[in-house]
Design brief:
By secondary structure, the protein is an alpha/beta fold. 39% of the residues lie in helices and 23% in strands. It contains five helices and six strands, in the order E-H-H-H-E-E-E-H-E-E-H.
Amino acid sequence: MLKLRVTDIKQYVFCPRIIYFTYVCPVDKKATRKMEYGKEAHVELDQLEKRRKFKRYNLSAAERKFHTQLFSERLGLEGKLDMHLVADGEIFPVEFKYTLRGPSLNHKYQLVAYAMLLEDIYNKPVRYGFLQLYPKGEVIPVEITPNARMFVKEIMQKIRAMVRNQIFPPTTLRKSRCIDCEYRNFCNDVR
């Protein structure tokens, strides 16, 4: 079973071709300006988060765990989560996102995949996670539903089938995503 990264799920939902250019036909990619902003925002959010209370998560107290490396042999999945909270016997994954528009579906399913990893490690269900948006400062709760977990598993199956069969997938239907994509130069049929 091909071991996948949680970011593969995020990338597949954004555009399946990113997975093709990562695993099937690897290419040297150039970091985009948006990616650089995201890295800088993560450093700033780490510092801010350490000083904040837990009201924005609707919790009175919790333990914060930053940048935990997670792995599940059962799922064949790994990833490094921005932060998770442990409070009153419950676990809450938190992903920091630099976005001016709001969370996207790829962000949601990335969070769900982290929740699934935490469930395997803590051996208990994760009911909610949070997307913390920068620079707006919003915290968006995301319910971790059985359907969302099933969708993540289906994506992992599709990724493994694509890699195994070396299938060149169609591009995303949302062409605006291609503007800042680091693989844009390799998608010759995208205009």
